[in-house]
């Protein structure tokens, strides 16, 4: 019998990427306890997608060891956010006074982000990922989506340094400046955060998976080539649901400056909700068993800040607690995912 194509999709959200780290840590620990203590989370998924902070997480999970297996556990990603997050997202006192809300230039210097990406990924290339990927960015010069897939990257024109991809997918307007990167072939691209069009990249991941000959790529006849939705299991993980209301009175006569923050916030959260709706409807058309192969895991932020760059210790703790609370309340669902990942592993 053929096995499902397993897809992991990771939303954008800046420092809120701590939340999916906590949820995925539980899933990985259960996989190691119930199946194989030597395998990592990335070994159980056939394609991993990510936007913005989710793109960085995906890249960590797809980092290969010498045997083309996943090298790092999700704990490594959690350590990057909890230990380096303050360096990456810090604005500084004077910067906050001179450049409030990123109105006059980017809110955060990209130097620390680029330094940490270089230290972590070095000269790793996209084509060398352990599994197929889908990492999003947007090309501001050619006005089109730029989707990075390690399967496509076997061609030099589609191959890039992973650190450059991570810089591009996380270049959120008003936070970081656009990324100017070049392919291994030498072509330059001017890119910004993929979260602007796919903060929840799960539907992009589905579309990408439809064209991949997985049996050939994964070297297993148990996996289908160019799978349909019937052949997939999708786990989509958010960075916390947004519930902050905007009153009509406050925005009735708002100008461009006053609309900047609400527009970005609403754009990203509504995008994620729409993708969830579309995939839910697609899976509902399947039989009783297969329609249960789509999971959207997106906790309440609880007491955590919705801001993408709030690295105060109390907020980091609140993000961790939001993730732990979700795990505690949804163990049955998470354990179902674990069992299905084991069943569909090759």
Automatic annotation (TrEMBL):
Instruction: Kindly state the positions of the motif GXGXXG in this protein.
Output: 12-17
Iron in keyword set: no
**UniProtKB keywords:** Hydrolase, Lipid degradation, Lipid metabolism
Q: Name one Pfam family in it.
A: Patatin
Motif, DGA/G: chain positions = 193-195
Q: Which InterPro entries match?
A: Acyl_Trfase/lysoPLipase, PNPLA_dom
Q: Where is this motif: GXSXG?
A: 50-54
Instruction: List each copy of the PNPLA domain by range.
Output: 8-206
| Keyword Iron in record | no
Coiled-coil portions: none
Catalytic-site annotation from UniProt: 52, 193
Please report which protein family the annotation says this sequence is part of: Belongs to the patatin family.
**Under what name is this protein listed?**
Patatin
């Amino acid at each position: 019998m053929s096995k499902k194509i397993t897809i992991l999709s990771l939303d954008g959200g800046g420092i809120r990427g701590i939340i999916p780290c906590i949820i995925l840590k539980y899933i990985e620990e259960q996989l190691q306890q119930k199946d194989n203590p030597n395998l990592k989370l990335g070994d159980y998924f056939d394609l991993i997608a990510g936007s913005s902070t989710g793109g960085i997480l995906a890249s960590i999970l797809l980092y290969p060891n010498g045997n083309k297996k996943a090298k790092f556990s999700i704990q490594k990603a959690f350590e990057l956010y909890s230990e380096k997050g303050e360096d990456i997202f810090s604005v500084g006192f004077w910067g906050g006074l001179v450049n409030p809300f990123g109105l006059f230039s980017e809110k955060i210097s990209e130097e620390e982000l680029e330094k940490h990406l270089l230290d972590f990924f070095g000269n790793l290339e996209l084509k060398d990922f352990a599994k197929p990927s889908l990492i999003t960015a947007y090309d501001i010069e050619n006005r089109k989506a730029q989707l990075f897939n390690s399967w496509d990257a076997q061609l030099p024109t589609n191959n890039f340094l992973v650190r450059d991809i991570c810089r591009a997918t996380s270049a959120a307007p008003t936070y970081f400046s656009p990324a100017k990167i070049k392919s291994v072939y030498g072509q330059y691209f001017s890119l910004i955060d993929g979260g602007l069009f796919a903060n929840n990249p799960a539907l992009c991941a589905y579309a990408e998976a439809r064209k991949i000959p997985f049996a050939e790529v994964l070297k297993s006849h148990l996996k289908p080539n160019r799978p349909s939705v019937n052949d997939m299991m999708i786990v989509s993980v958010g960075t916390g649901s947004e519930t902050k209301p905007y009153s009509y009175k406050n925005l009735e006569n708002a100008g461009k400056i006053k609309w900047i923050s609400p527009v970005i916030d609403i754009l990203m959260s509504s995008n994620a909700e729409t993708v969830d709706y579309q995939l839910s409807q697609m899976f509902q058309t399947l039989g009783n068993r297969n329609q249960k192969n789509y999971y959207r895991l997106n906790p309440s932020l609880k007491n955590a800040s919705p801001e993408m760059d709030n690295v105060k210790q109390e907020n980091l703790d609140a993000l961790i607690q939001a993730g732990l609370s979700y795990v505690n309340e949804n163990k049955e669902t998470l354990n179902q995912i674990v069992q299905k990942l084991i069943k569909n592993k090759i």
